[in-house]
Amino acid sequence: MKILLVGGGGREHALAWKMAGSTLCDRMWAAPGNPGIARHAECVDIPADDTDALVRFAGDNGVDLVVVGPEDPLAGGLSDAVRAAGILCFGPTARGARIEADKAYAKELMRGAAVPTAEARIFTELSAAKQYVLSRDHGVAVKAAGLAKGKGVFVCDEPYQAVRPLEQIMGERVFGEAGRTVLVEERLTGPEATVLALCDGKNIYIAPPLQDHKPIGDGDTGANTGGMGAYSPVPMLDEAMLGRIEREILVPIVDAMRRDFGRYEGVLYAGLMLTPGGPKVIEFNCRFGDPECQPLMMRLDSDLVEAMVAVCEHKLGDIEMRWDPRPSVCVVMASGGYPGPYEKGLAITGLAEAEALDDVAVFQAGTADCDGTLVTAGGRVLGVTARGETIADAQCRAYEAVGHIHFEGAHWRTDIADRAIAAL
């Protein structure tokens, strides 16, 4: 098959790395890709949101399968356009992507399907939102309803602390049009977990669970980011709990989407809080998580392209997916200043030494090639990922690899997977 991968981050590097090993993959392009992806695919200079150019390229080059990594192109209708051109596309339609692109819509969908989630109020006026939070007695979570690259969530211990985030989101529009509508939710407590499911419109396949680390600092302190690391599996999510999540969350929401617009095809990402009252949905996403995709791909033993084609052809029930029983851990190395302003163009060294370690892969997220030198080009620069016989072993390998890599201002969390190790 000829494959076009859309995107250029760490998630897409992990997907390219895995798809390149498929017996079904004859040739692969990536648009726009990055220097890491270029090891596995031919990068083409087409932005991920240029739907017309991507569809034209796919048609002109006889592409058989388009794989869409990021959420923005999906929300913009890329999958619809690719399918209209008669080409297989892994990723939901724009109506399906709305479950991530419009948190207000997702909340109403969950309410209608009786999916357990935080109680919430939806606001389009700043004054009404501020008045509401100041009337509350307990902590709240403030969320921009639109796409904010994982940064549009503010968790507030006290209601008054929500006023400033509301002003930033709705008044100053720090997230642009994503902040036109805001959700104010009750603050849930408990450990977080991510469950990713492949959906072909009639079948659901649940991948091994993961746990992401959103806050910038150790101990889940500081501002939210796109994700500072992840690990798999999650000790507190046993088979019984996964069965409950499937019955109470995944099946009802997929059924609700089918009633609303038809088949949901692609990845359904459920971000969950394991509360004392049971699992509740924090958010749904319409694609592989980043950085969750990186440790997940490290554990996948079967053919990723085969699974993607099965989703597109509504034959997910006909294939078997196999997973390495060894845990995996991903540590994100970020630019100095991230998630705020940061400098780009800083030289990165030590990748070869890190990648020479056993069971280690370094996935490039925010990098660029500057006259043959690998340099920083984003906030989250690298996802240093390792497997190990135990989760503690995987963690040790990942941090050993991190120690080989250098760029000015680099920072990372030092406690990725500590919670899992403590739970064992």
- What share of residues are in beta strands? 25-35%
Regions with pLDDT < 50 over 5+ consecutive residues? none
User: The biggest beta sheet, please?
Assistant: 5 strands, parallel
The CATH topology of the largest domain is D-amino Acid Aminotransferase, Chain A, domain 1
What coarse outline follows from CA principal-axis ratios? globular
Give the N-terminus to C-terminus distance in angstroms.
43 Å
Structurally, the number of domains stands at: 4
> Can you tell me the CATH class of the largest domain?
Alpha Beta
Q: Which structural class best describes the helix and strand composition?
A: alpha+beta
Spatial strand order of the main sheet: 3-2-1-4-5
Report the radius of gyration as a whole number of Å.
20 Å
Number-wise, the strands total 22
Mean pLDDT across residues: 96
CATH homologous superfamily descriptor of the largest domain: ATP-grasp fold, B domain
Descriptive notes:
- The chain is of the alpha+beta class.
- The chain folds into four domains: 2-91, Rossmann fold (3-Layer(aba) Sandwich); 125-180, Dna Ligase, domain 1 (2-Layer Sandwich); 192-318, ATP-grasp fold, B domain (D-amino Acid Aminotransferase, Chain A, domain 1, 2-Layer Sandwich), CATH 3.30.470; 328-423, Glycinamide Ribonucleotide Synthetase, Chain A, domain 4 (Alpha-Beta Complex), CATH 3.90.600.10.
- The protein is 31% helix and 26% strand.
- It has helices at 10-19, 51-60, 71-75, 78-84, 94-101, 103-113, 126-134, 163-171, 239-260, 293-299, 304-312, 351-355, 391-402, 418-423; strands spanning 2-7, 27-32, 42-43, 65-68, 88-90, 120-123, 140-144, 153-156, 182-186, 192-200, 204-206, 211-212, 215-217, 221-224, 229-232, 265-275, 278-285, 328-334, 360-364, 367-370, 373-376, 380-387.
- It has a five-stranded parallel beta sheet with strand order 3-2-1-4-5, sandwiched between helices. Strands 12-15-18-22-19 form a five-stranded antiparallel beta sheet. A four-stranded antiparallel beta sheet has the order 6-9-7-8, sandwiched between helices.
- A hairpin with a 2-residue loop joins strand 16 (265-275) and strand 17 (278-285).
- The longest helix is centred in the middle third of the chain and has 22 residues, at 239-260.
- The termini are far apart.
- The model has no long low-confidence stretch (mean pLDDT 96).
